[in-house]
Here is the input.
Amino acid sequence: MQIGFIGLGNMGGPMAANLAAAGHDVTGFDPAGVSAEGVTKAANAEDAAKDAEVVITMLPNGDILRSVAAQIIPVMSKGAVFLDCSTVDVTSARDVADDAQKAGLSALDAPVSGGTGGASSGTLTFMVGGDEAGFATAKPLFDIMGQKAVHCGPSGNGQAAKICNNMILGATMIVTCEAFALADKLGLDRQAMFDVVSTSSGYSWSMNAYCPAPGIGPKSPADNDYTPGFAAELMLKDLTLAQQAAEAADADTPLGAAARALYAKFVEQEDGKGRDFSAMLPRFAARGRG
Here is the structure.
């Protein structure tokens, strides 16, 4: 398949490389000038998108997505698929999809879960909004880049699924870190804590698969001095998107709001920027109740 890929950063680069390694003809562009193994470097976004059967974007935010969409939609071939894997606000995703559909394209919003490790290993989960025909075209690509792709309904629903998922993740990581810090102060060994909780009703992905305590459970960023697998500032971004969506939908999300406030403080006022989102554990371990 002829694929254009725009945004070859920490996530997009490995995703594009996996597609190229699987035998697809991938032409990529990134404004920072970076490329990826096996990917033909384009001079600009339009060159990457022209003549492609599927154009994949992995971009930082909704404003940049709108800007890139305005550049590439006019040059894309009728019937091609515009597959956006960025995590952006629902309104931007739906507006871009509407513009793409008016131009005779299929449009999918397909944010991912799995972080940089999942991008490299091809084990991402895709949450996909958009039309069935576009999903069917893109399905073989999802199978290369990830382990699962769930069609969540019409355009924008992929983003809705992502922000709901990550609101749960942010809140559960915080309470997992709080629980370890409390266990420390109560004299409960961290390994004992993990052995109980990981097989009891406190079971969660944050505890069992991504434990924030170094040396406990499967290997995680905690074992590498909290070098990001998923940076705290990205969690703050997703929690902010969730609160924006909650406000627009008139949804009451007090725990989501509290999680966003804690990550904002961690990233903007403390030492959280550039650290994994699980680095909340040393933050709580060093603090008292006051």
About this structure: The chain has a mean pLDDT of 97. The beta strands are 2-6, 25-29, 40-41, 54-57, 81-84, 106-109, 112-113, 124-130, 146-153. The first helix runs from residue 12 to 21. The chain has twelve helices and nine strands.
